[in-house]
Amino acid sequence: MAELVDVALSVNRKAFRRKVRTDQRLLDVLREDLRLTGAKEGCGKGECGACTVLVDGHAVDSCLMMAYQADGAAIETIEGLSDGALHPLQESFIDQGGVQCGICIPGMIMAAKALVDERPEATAEDVRQGLAGNLCRCTGYQNIVEAVERYLRQAAAGRRDG
Predict the structure, then answer these.
(1) Which domains does the chain have, with CATH numbers?
(2) For residue 19, what are the contacts with CB-CB under 8 A and spacing of at least 6?
(3) Cβ(113)–Cβ(54) under 8 Å?
């Protein structure tokens, strides 16, 4: 029987304390305990990226991280990306046709957010490399790459104007 561990998490800027089993993945806590179902169970092996969330600003496959390892961390899921309105990155995905069935998109957007936050001057090649761990069976990737590039251009224009 798995041991219980007390963890403190900040998820989408809200504090949570939970007792979690030592064999419980972060993905399970997010989906089952907190009812944040944006991160999807794809492969369960860290190969598809459908479960990508940000942990302290870094893209992480939540199916590979044990919940107790996130103790004290700031976690952001797709649900926390918007404040009532879509985040500009989400809008860019929609406008560029980078959204199809929806299984990979939350993880893809979160991986893209980690990339653009870390590298606001990212090139198209940087975008392709940054999203390489996220699989999409529907879009063919080009629209996704274009969506991230569009967001980067808009963000750069905003930095110059503001």
Answers:
(1) 4-80 (3.10.20.30), 88-161 (1.10.150.120)
(2) 4, 5, 6, 7
(3) yes
Question: What is the tens place of the pLDDT at every residue in 27-77?
Answer: 999 999 999 999 999 999 999 999 999 999 999 999 999 999 999 999 999
Residue type at 57 in one-letter notation: G
Question: Which residues, including other chains, have CB under 8 Å from residue 85's CB and lie 6 or more apart?
Answer: none
Using CA atoms of 99, 103, 106, 112 in order, give the dihedral in degrees to the nearest 10: -70
pLDDT in tens, 100-130: 888 889 999 999 999 999 999 999 999 999 9
pTM here? Answer: 0.91
Measured CA to CA, the distance from residue 82 to residue 21 in angstroms comes to 30
Question: 97: which 2 tokens?
Answer: 């046709």
Helix 88-95 with 142-161: angle, nearest 10 deg: 130
Angle between the 105-118 and 88-95 helix axes, to the nearest 10 degrees?
A: 120
Task: Pull the structure tokens for residue 105.
Answer: 């998109």
- Answer yes or no: are the C-beta atoms of 62 and 25 closer than 8 Å: yes
